[in-house]
Amino acid sequence: MNLNYIMPSYKLTYFNMRGRAEIIRYIFAYLDIKYDDHRIEYADWPEVKPTLPFAKIPILEVDGVYLHQSLAIARYLTKNTDLAGKTELEQCQVDAVVDTLDDFMSRFPWAEKKQDVKEQMFNELLTCEAPHLLQYLDTYLGEKEWFIGNSVTWADFYWEICSTTLLVFRPDLLDVHPRLVALRKKVQAIPAIADWIQRRPLTRL
User: Fold this and answer.
1) 14 is catalytic
2) How confident is the model at residue 53 (pLDDT cuts 50, 70, 90)?
């Protein structure tokens, strides 16, 4: 153990919502890492945007170094922890589940300004595409306790986060998938995650 090791200083910048930053917040909570959860309002975004690398958030500042892309940040934070998977094979499986979920979530037109177009596209994805993805995930999970290995990984966190957002738009989405519902509840029952869910700002997304 390096007695001279000093924990880095972390500052997370994102909107006042769960969104793409929530996986980072879950990891910080689970690993009991202190950080500055800096939330900006949409009205301030035009002023903040030009100051950031690639003009996107979330951004994680690590001792003044800017990191971007939420999943890259998540992989950085979970590296050398069991959350990433206990073996290289498990780590690849974790990444695959996360990327599968993210591929689907990225198809939603979150920034579409025409409400009728947005609603139509959301409805098509939730009605026609989501059932296939959920069946694949259900089969992959099977009777296991977690998606990968014998302990929780950040793939389980990401499932809980993504499904929470999807349920906002389609509350009955998981009614025929009790195993996926059970996994959500297992993640939510982890003490550090339960504590974060209880005290985080209440937002729709």
Assistant:
1) yes
2) confident
Owning domain of residue 33: 10-80+194-199
105 and 183 co-located in one domain: yes
Contact present, 24 and 71 (Cβ < 8 Å): no
Residues 183 and 120 in one domain: yes
Residue type for position 66: Y
Of these residues, 14, 154, 158, 159, which one is catalytic? 14
Mean pLDDT across the chain = 96
- Inside any domain, residue 5: no
Tokens of 193: 């995650």
26 and 96 share a domain? Answer: no
Q: Is residue 205 part of a domain?
A: no
User: Mean pLDDT across the stretch 39-49?
Assistant: 94
Task: Tell me how far apart the alpha carbons of residues 139 and 57 are, in angstroms, rounded to a whole number.
Answer: 34
110 is catalytic: yes
Distance of CA 59 to the CA centre of its chain: 14
CATH number at residue 34: 3.40.30.10
| 111-141 pLDDT, tens digit each | 999 999 999 999 999 999 999 999 999 999 9
